[in-house]
Amino acid sequence: MNAPMTLNTADRTESPSHLALPTPADLRRELPVEPPLAERIAAQRQAIRDILEGRDDRLLVVVGPCSIHDPAAALAYAEHLVALNRRVEDRLLLVMRVYVEKPRTTVGWKGLAYDPHLDGSDDMAGGLTISRRLMRDIAALGLPVATELLQPMAAAYFDDLIAWAAIGARTTESQIHRELASGLEAAVGFKNATDGGIGVAIDAMRSAAHAHRHFAMDPHGGPVMRETAGNPHTHLVLRGGHAGPNYATDSVAASRRALEDAGLPARMLVDCSHANSAKDHRRQPEVLRDVLAQRLAGETGLVGVMLEGHLAEGKQPLVPGGLRYGVSITDACLGWEDTAALLEEAARQLRG
Ligand SMILES: O=C[C@H](O)[C@H](O)COP(=O)(O)O
Ligand SMILES: C=C(OP(=O)(O)O)C(=O)O
């Protein structure tokens, strides 16, 4: 790891409960995105938009760990994905989940950006730096990076690296997140609410498509009024809810109707994990196979899927010093071999 950067905190008030962080500009200076990488990310975003807008009939696949806790394991995962991509890229567009912030139902470890040392020390300056470096390394491998944007202030540290963003089930109803999405170049998936309601996600898509003026932070950490253009590249993410899954044909048809009634394009991505698999990673394949069957039967609104996978299957409790390599410390994930076999099977089916 590089030496921590020196922060210019001369004009900032610090106290034990207020520790200065680097500004987005500091971090972008330390870990710049050079023009060739910026062009590559722009092309990745365009490829995703082409799928969303029907110019490319490949399936968008957002796949990777539920959360990143070990950057070395995440890079190893990314390298596997790059190799797999060569075998499936004719039918699938692989995008890696690089989730460095985790929304918690109550409390728990909040992700690499918050607590990179996994010990409750909450070295957020280190967490932001490690997260940005990892996203840059993964993007440099040629893999589009996906993340959930949870803390709007944190987005400015990463948003130049992101090809696809999620607004999660717990924040889709938040105006602040809709404003954030309205200013992004990347396509954004809004998840249905944890209770299964899709109405909030549809409202979110309508709101994010609009121009907004909102309170924000400039790259130097100063408060600004930010004006956004509106993001027309949003879609619904079906992740199931408290009453059960919502990926089956009838739920998809109902979601399609609701989108069309709202005057929105029928674009849906199915999250094969979370409430669609009752958080049992072994059930993700049956969800994916159902989505593929619907696509092959003509449901063009199903533009993509999300899978939670890590190097090894399952999950483990966060016991500092006692972690198994490549195993999730948040939701249970498919292991690499199962994920690769599943995606090869999906590509084969889509080839017809
Ligand atoms: O995706 C991960 C989790 O489902 C989400 O962060 C909520 O986690 P929790 O219910 O364990 O707090
Ligand atoms: C937290 C996540 O999902 P959801 O918002 O659907 O719970 C996730 O995808 O990591």
TrEMBL record:
Residues making up the signal peptide according to the UniProt record: none
Catalytic reaction list: D-erythrose 4-phosphate + phosphoenolpyruvate + H2O = 7-phospho-2-dehydro-3-deoxy-D-arabino-heptonate + phosphate
Gene3D superfamilies given in the database record: Aldolase class I
Protein name per Swiss-Prot or TrEMBL: Phospho-2-dehydro-3-deoxyheptonate aldolase
Keyword Hydrolase in record: no
Cross-referenced NCBIfam families: aroFGH, PRK12755.1
One Pfam family recorded for the sequence: DAHP_synth_1
This protein's record includes keyword Amino-acid biosynthesis: yes
